[in-house]
Design a protein that fits this description.
- The protein folds into two domains: 122 residues; 102 residues, Orthogonal Bundle (Transferase(Phosphotransferase), domain 1), CATH 1.10.510.
- The longest helix is centred in the last third of the chain and has 22 residues.
- It starts with a strand and ends with a helix.
- The chain is built from seven helices and 13 strands.
- Strands 1, 2, 3, 4, 5, 6, 7 and 8 form an eight-stranded antiparallel beta sheet that branches.
- It is an alpha+beta fold.
């Protein structure tokens, strides 16, 4: 952990000097990423940038509020939960328990008055597509491979005690041989996933699946749907 002006950052020791200098020069990690050669962009709730930092391709994103609190934009109460630090802690715990999720390379937060703003850099997973794109925009063989990988990921999450509050098709990235879960800032790692939490995750996932079916006019094959929903058990 290091403090630079109003910024506090956490990164592994070999990478800490590089991240510290970037924040010293540009004020925030996300502002620094905007000045680096861009390898790509990812569009979710807000723009995320793919850049190389300390020899690693990273996705750098700035935290933004959603839902009813979106009027506050990127501002979080200084005395409230630190979402960046929480995402780092959850990611490390989940990875230690065998859940595939991109490694967090750095988190940084910045205090001003009563508010906190935060950034995070995670390892960029090349050659991945989110589950929505794979199921609804790919070939049948791709959809079948993605389904098997995603179902295994869901079983791994439940076995590891990872409770994901927003498990939707966009938060599962699929590579040729495995799937990864992302956006862990509202998640927790428990000693076991309760029946209520498993049901909530399954229902959220099913709503996402149905939403994409309606949006695309395509229907996921019954066998694939059964594999995905069956992975939640119960």
């Amino acid at each position: 952990m290091s403090t630079t002006g109003r910024a506090t950052l956490v990164a592994r020791a070999p990478d800490l000097p590089t991240y510290s200098v970037l924040i010293q020069q540009h004020g925030t990690l996300f502002d620094a990423a905007k000045q680096l050669p861009r390898m790509g962009e990812l569009q979710g709730r807000a723009l995320a940038l793919v850049v190389e930092i300390a020899g690693t391709a990273c996705v750098v994103r700035h935290y933004h509020r959603g839902g009813a609190a979106r009027l506050l934009g990127d501002r979080y109460a200084r005395w409230g939960p630190n979402r960046a630090l929480r995402e780092l802690q959850v990611s490390e715990s989940a990875r230690a328990r065998g859940v595939a999720t991109p490694a967090v390379k750095c988190v940084a937060w910045y205090h001003r008055a009563i508010f906190r703003r935060s950034d995070i850099a995670t390892r960029y997973m090349a050659s991945t597509r989110d589950l929505a794109d794979t199921l609804f925009g790919g070939e049948t063989a791709d959809a079948e491979r993605a389904t098997r990988a995603a179902a295994q990921l869901i079983r791994d999450m439940l076995r590891a005690g990872l409770v994901h509050s927003d498990l939707n098709l966009k938060n599962i990235l699929v590579a040729p041989d495995r799937a990864y879960v992302v956006d862990l800032d509202k998640c927790s790692v428990e000693e076991g996933v309760s029946t209520a939490h498993s049901k909530s995750m399954r229902e959220r996932f099913l709503r996402s699946l149905t939403k994409w079916e309606r949006a695309t006019g395509k229907t996921v094959a019954a066998g694939l749907r059964s594999q995905l929903i069956g992975a939640f058990g119960g």
